[in-house]
Amino acid sequence: MDKLLLWVSVLASLPEAFAQKDLSRKVFLFPRESSTDHVNLITKLEKPLQNFTLCFAYSDLSCGYSLFSYNTQGKDNELLIFKDRIGEYSLYIGRTRVTARVIEEFPTPVHICTSWESSTGTAEFWINGKPLVKKGLRQGYSVGANPKIVLGQEQDSYGGGFDKTQSFMGQIGDLYMWDSLLSPEEIQFVYQVSYSLNPTILNWQALNYEMKGYVVIKPLVWG
């Protein structure tokens, strides 16, 4: 009984930094430029990815930063979404990049979806529900399993190697990831109603995460 009470006490004292939660109508706020503040997204992904679709919404306070960083052991930029400047996004697969451009108004919130198909190498961005030009990237490649996934920083190593100048300042929410390609109709649905459509990798409505440093959960105030 004493041991049971001890474990209950320990669990009750754990900080909110590590949790699984429904974050519907909430965002992660990254208030400052930093080389330490970030969120680890935790998923059990044990098989390499042949396809994926990733969607999320964000509003930003700066340019030139990582939006989504996915590294595996010994491989940085295994899957990276980086905003180079206003209206310019890069997708890295296996350290190879394609870039997409769109007219944007700064600093209005943005909803972004990106997808990649190994068999054809087709990479695609959707910004605020509108598809951009499709491009070819790493045909036949497999994105590695057992990743470290980080919001707020760009990894130069497995779960670390952060650079303050590439840190994200702003808000990120409604993040979902699938190990398949969503149809154009499904992407439109996700954009319009921010609904999950049974995500298989990351689910904002049942998210495992670990907050590090100065990161705050706040109510969603856009859309």
Give a description of the structure.
This protein is mainly beta. Helices cover 10% and strands 43% of the residues. The chain is built from two helices and 17 strands. The strands form two sheets. Strands 2, 4, 9, 10, 11, 12, 14, 15 and 17 form a nine-stranded antiparallel beta sheet that branches. Strands 1-16-3-13-5-6-7-8 form an eight-stranded antiparallel beta sheet, with no helix packed on it. Strand 7 (88-93) and strand 8 (96-101) form a beta hairpin. The longest helix has 12 residues, at 2-13. It is globular. Residues 1-17 have low confidence and may be disordered.
CA-based shape: globular
Mean pLDDT: 90
Structural class: mainly beta
End-to-end Cα distance: 50 Å
How big is the Rg? Answer: 17 Å
Quaternary status = single chain
Let me know the largest β-sheet. 9 strands, antiparallel
> How much strand?
35-45%
Number of helices: 2
| Helix percentage range | under 10%
Topology order in helix (H) and strand (E) letters: HEEEEEEEEEEEEEEHEEE
Low-confidence blocks of residues? 1-17
Would you report the number of β strands? 17
Descriptive key words:
single chain; globular; 8-stranded antiparallel β-sheet; 10% helix; 9-stranded antiparallel β-sheet; 223 residues; mainly beta; disordered N terminus
